[in-house]
Amino acid sequence: MTPDSRKPNPSDESQADHLSDALQHLSSAVESESIATGAAKGLVYSVMETLGTLIGDPDLPEHARS
């Protein structure tokens, strides 16, 4: 697949910062009770599934639980 030259190619560090910011936002939402804890856990699990798929470890959520 040819990359789209119109889209910026963010660095790995930038992507890690975005992930960190997203998790911090989620944590703040739980602390301020603007989102249910169960919903936050579901979102984190979904992120871990996606990350596992991207790095080639589809069992990543199971590894994280143990």
Describe this structure in a few short sentences.
It contains 3 helices and no strands. With about 70 residues, it is mainly α. The mean pLDDT is about 80.
Walk me through the structure.
The chain is mainly α and 66 residues long. It has a domain at 26-65. It has helices spanning 12-31, 37-55, 60-65. The mean pLDDT is 80.
Task: Please report the distance between the alpha carbons of the first and last residues.
Answer: 36 Å
Shape: flat
The proportion of residues forming helix, as a percent range, comes to 55-70%
The number of helical elements comes to 3
Model regions low in confidence, pLDDT < 50 over at least 5 residues = none
Radius of gyration, rounded? 15 Å
- Quickly give the structural class: mainly alpha
Number of strands: 0
- In percent terms, what proportion of residues is strand? under 5%
Oligomerization category of the chains in this entry: single chain
Element pattern in H and E: HHH
Query: Averaging pLDDT over every residue, what do you get?
Result: 80
- Main beta sheet: strand number and arrangement? none
Give the topology, please:
Blueprint: H1 12-31, H2 37-55, H3 60-65
Task: Fill in the keyword field for this structure.
single chain; 0% strand; mainly alpha
